[in-house]
Amino acid sequence: MFLTATIAAIAFQQQAKPLSTPTLFVENLAFATYANKKWTALQGKQNFPNPFTAFSLDIGRVTENRFIYEVPFLEGVEANFIESSSGAPVLWSGPKPKYPRAIQIVNPAQSDYLLVVKEFAKAQLKATPKFEVEINSIIRVDLDGDGKEEVLIEAQSKGFTGMYEFESKKYEMNCTLIRHIKNGKAVTEPIFFFTNNPEGEFNDPIQITHIKSIADLNGDGRYEVIVTANYYEGQSAAVYNLEKGALKLLVENGAGV
Ligand SMILES: [Ca+2]
Ligand SMILES: [Ca+2]
User: Fold this and answer.
1) Which of 60, 92, 124 is where one domain is finished?
2) Among 211, 216, 244, 247, which residue's Cα sits nearest to residue 229?
3) Given 42, 62, 92, which residue is the final one in a domain?
4) 20 to 30 A from 61, CA-CA: which of 6, 26, 41, 168?
């Protein structure tokens, strides 16, 4: 009885296969491939072996070695959007990601960074913000390997709950920022910025953005930064790196209404 059950279990377990082209999955979105030094956004239904292996990525580390991702979840996908889940891991099916330099998580309550975000908001709104800001995360890392650290910040107006808010309020904000040295000067630039307009109406559907992963996926010594934006009934993601002192969009993709 025991032996029969074991044999059945082994027969049921299929061997995980590698994907022929390194593929990135972001929040259940078959997001992009990387081949011949080029990122390509994935569109439409993809064919994946069942199951295949991929690394599960978190900020600065591989959270699980050779995570086996069950493909049935991805089947029947017409537009490569499956379902929104902010807790879904970023998955990478290519060679093991590299972490050439330390990725440092900084205490988000640091007052000097709160000031940085306030000043950024002031510049964007062209007025003193009428909200307090709170920082969700601060990550310090030398993205491009030039010896100078960059700082990535995920912040919002205090108490902002993003797409779960169904009533518009005045002066809300959500952003991901990069603070870095540009032409010898420390500057704060938006990777993503959302705000309600001063009348309290939505400029766009409410969006909330996250810095999901940082890893050198293609092994070129520069970190890739994976940022997502979720909005009501939709989501998008983008991969950036830092080249010649500027944030460069490598690939973006999105799905939803
Ligand atoms: Ca740098
Ligand atoms: Ca890289």
Assistant:
1) 92
2) 211
3) 92
4) 41
- Between the alpha carbon of residue 109 and those of residues 106, 135, 153, 191, 245, the distances in Å are 9, 7, 12, 21, 27
Distance 215 CA to ligand 1 centre (A): 14
- Assign residue 36 a region (left: φ > 0; alpha: ψ between -120 and 50; beta: otherwise): left
Q: What is the pLDDT, as a whole number, of residue 129? A: 83
Same domain, 144 and 227: yes
- pLDDT tens digit sequence for 71-128: 544 443 333 333 434 466 788 889 989 999 999 999 999 889 999 999 999 998 888 8
Q: How far is the CA of 98 from the centre of ligand 1 (A)?
A: 16
Structurally, how many domains does the chain consist of? 2
Residues 108 and 88 in one domain: no
Q: Ligand 2 center to residue 216 CA distance, Å?
A: 4
Separation between Cα atoms, residue 24 and residue 36, nearest integer Å = 15
Percent of the chain with pLDDT over 70: 71
What is the pTM assigned to this prediction? Answer: 0.83
**Structural domain containing residue 33:** 2-92
Examine the domain organization and report whether 180 and 57 are in the same domain: no
Is 24 exposed, middle or buried (CB count within 10 Å of its CB: 0-12, 13-18, 19+)?
A: buried
- Joined together, the tokens standing for residue 79 give 């537009």
| C-beta atoms surrounding 63 within 10 Å | 14
- Which two three-digit tokens encode residue 188? 């704060």
How many angstroms does the Cα of residue 36 sit away from the middle of ligand 1? 25
72 and 113 in a single domain? The answer is no
**Residue 216 Cα to ligand 1 middle (Å):** 14
Give yes or no: residues 111 and 236 share one domain.
yes
